[in-house]
Amino acid sequence: MYNKDDRLTVSITDTGIDGEGIGKIDGYTLFIKDAVLGDTVEAKIMKAKKNYAYARLEKVIAPSPFRVTPKCEFARSCGGCQIQALDYNAQLKFKADKVRNNLLRIGHFSEEELEAKMEPIVGMDDPYHYRGKAQFPFGTDKNGNVITGFYAGRTHNIIANTDCALGVEDNREILGIILDHMKKHNIPAYNETIGKGLIRHALIRKGFATGELMVCLVINLGKNDATKTSTLQRRSNTYGGAYEYIPEQGELIASLAKIPGMTSISVSINNEKTNVIMGTEIHTLWGQPVIHDTIHMCDTKDGFRVSDEGISYAISPLSFYQVNPKQTERLYSLALDYAGLTGKESVWDLYCGIGTISLFLAKKAKQVYGVEIIPQAIDDARENARNNGIDNASFFVGKAEEVLPEFYEKESGRTGSSVLSSSMLTPDVIVVDPPRKGCDEACLSTMLQMNPDRIVYVSCDSATLARDLRILVDGGYKLKNIRPVDMFPHSVHVETAVLLIKEV
Ligand code: SAH
Questions:
Q1: Ligand 1 binding residues, C-beta < 6 A
Q2: Which helix (H) or strand (E) holds 310?
Q3: Which residue range is the domain that position 148 belongs to?
Q4: pLDDT at position 415
């Protein structure tokens, strides 16, 4: 056993689930953040237990062949990336191994079966600048200057950086304009400790297919309504007599509006002492209330070549929208392929969100039924369907584990059901895309009762995926294809698409 502050030299032989390097000395395991598989490092123990310890990387003695210089100088301290110092191909291997290991250990699938069913992970051609959305916190450094950037890992300390390697290049110019404006007019950043100051966050979104940009400044106007009204002077300026939420707002808007692609500038009012970033009250100051983007279908058999066919989305500051549209196209095209649609099928899409997968499916199926817990997302799904001229998708608000069993119980007992309810009762395909905790058992058992020909499981957590696949396979399905997709390069997350078919 070792103690706190002990310094050890160790070779890194494995990568942990959070991307940390793992090394062993005489059976004693060290977890070392920022150490890379294949490194030999000097590490200092921070927290020692009987059989293992968490240690800090002090020095790389011999770098791993997989170690690369991170593109971002803050990669180690910033909480956004975990494995930027690992070569991208090694990142992809780490993620594919993570999925395989969970399917082996938790799902109890055999090596041979996984060997036969698992397809190569889908990586990005250029794994940088892929995020179409970022939220930058504002604060003050120790010299009193306003700054913006990212939170350091597990803290709310801001690392000043307007040039994140994962975000779009436009972020830097936009943030520069906001910071300059704050400095010039002495506008205070929000201070979370005392709950005072005006500018809390800047939300920046970009539609990759359209080039449209959105800036939404999250501001704190104070709790007290009197302060609020005195802060807001109605001004009849060239921007349509809008309230002045930010001092010299017109000047700020004019600078931002000059940026090519700028489409929407708004404020979101958040007067609460909370970690929730966005406030629900949004006011458009300039341009449109939304930006647009298109998610295209890809040919998964032809290097994910992008087709002209796609679904367009209107995105407001509060809308959910996938942060990596490029890989979303690939993942959802894979799910669509797995669904094997010919135009005659009825399909359930459970955990459907704003209907990204549902609307893809609707273009190729007879009828699609989406289920989602958040009412606002269902409103967006319905509107997205309308805007794309899709009339064969219906959406239901509720928990998948309640909506599906309740519907099944009610309709399966009934004689002479309508054509609609009978196609819903015996769908050809069920697609699920649950959050990290996976599907509820009640949902899985109703899926089995409905007995579709195919089940497509899209997962963001391979541990719960493995658990749920075991239930579906024991319930009469067989694994056909498994394919991991890297939606979040430089993080430890990995998505997986799986096709199960009914055993005959
Ligand atoms: N495919 C969707 C995203 C799925 S993310 C899209 O592209 O929009 C998972 C979704 O499941 C989220 O929208 C979340 O709100 C929803 N959700 C979480 N728990 C749920 C439950 N018990 N029943 C139904 N939906 C749920």
A1: 322, 351-354, 356-357, 371-374, 377, 399-401, 433-435
A2: strand 305-315
A3: 133-289
A4: 64
